[in-house]
Amino acid sequence: MAERIGDAYGLVLLLIIITFVVMMTLPPEGWGGRVAAIAIAALTAIVAFTSSDVRPARVRLAVVVAGVAVAAAALATAISSDRLLGLAFGAVAIMLAIAAATILRRVIVGAREVDFRTILGAISVFTLLGLLFAFLYFAFSRWSHDPFFAGHVAARSSDYLFFSYTTLTTTGYGNLVPDGTVGQSFAVLEMLVGQIFLVTLVAGLVSLWRPGGGRTPARGTDG
């Protein structure tokens, strides 16, 4: 099974897109949207771990954490517990952060040449960053008694996702602004992470890029 999933960063990217669609389209207050978003995002992290040759024991631990998070989300919806729901989203956010780090270490940092797998891994890491910060924002909003966004008392899950990716890319439309030190601090952190990642990643890929690599004739051969 591990061999089949190995290096499946295309599947990781697909699962990220599915999570994005779920959070943007399904009713934010229904149990289906919440549980489905957590389940798919947790599965994304697990596939990322498996694709990055993480030890089987750690993968099994991730599966247990994912199961607990999904169960917590379902229970939180049943008993209307915002803090329990925030805990579930926070746990998955931590899993996504570790998944991004493992892909970064396996595919990009240790890469000796740039190929399609390297590009796919880089895209997966960047999109994972936006997803994990969205989960963090959502978690903080459930842990706090105050609205996360200024002027938005009842923000939807799609709002957190939209804000996360516009912050990560420093687009900054300004329609959603975090209200409070914690939200503003993490928004600044996301901006810095997004910009530093892009700058260092682009520089690294350019330095490793070798047009026509592997086709250079050996020395001493006749042309």
Kindly describe this structure:
The protein has 223 residues and is mainly alpha-helical. Helices cover 73% and strands 0% of the residues. The chain contains eight helices and no strands. The protein has helices at residues 2-5, 9-25, 31-51, 56-79, 82-109, 116-143, 157-168, 181-208. Helix 2 (9-25) runs antiparallel to helix 3, helix 2 runs parallel beside helix 6 (116-143) and helix 6 runs antiparallel to helix 8 (181-208). The longest helix is centred in the middle third of the chain and has 28 residues, at 82-109. Residues 1-6 and 214-223 have low confidence and may be disordered.
Series of H and E elements: HHHHHHHH
| Gross morphology | globular
Count every helix, treating DSSP H or I runs of 4 or more residues as helices. Answer: 8
Radius of gyration: 20 Å
Q: Can you tell me the residue ranges where pLDDT is under 50 for at least 5 consecutive residues?
A: 1-6, 214-223
Short description:
The protein is mostly helical and 223 residues long. Helix content is 73%, strand content 0%. The chain is globular.
Q: Could you give the topology of this structure?
A:
Elements: H1 2-5, H2 9-25, H3 31-51, H4 56-79, H5 82-109, H6 116-143, H7 157-168, H8 181-208
Helix pairs in contact: 2-3, 2-6, 2-7, 3-4, 3-5, 4-5, 5-6, 6-7, 6-8
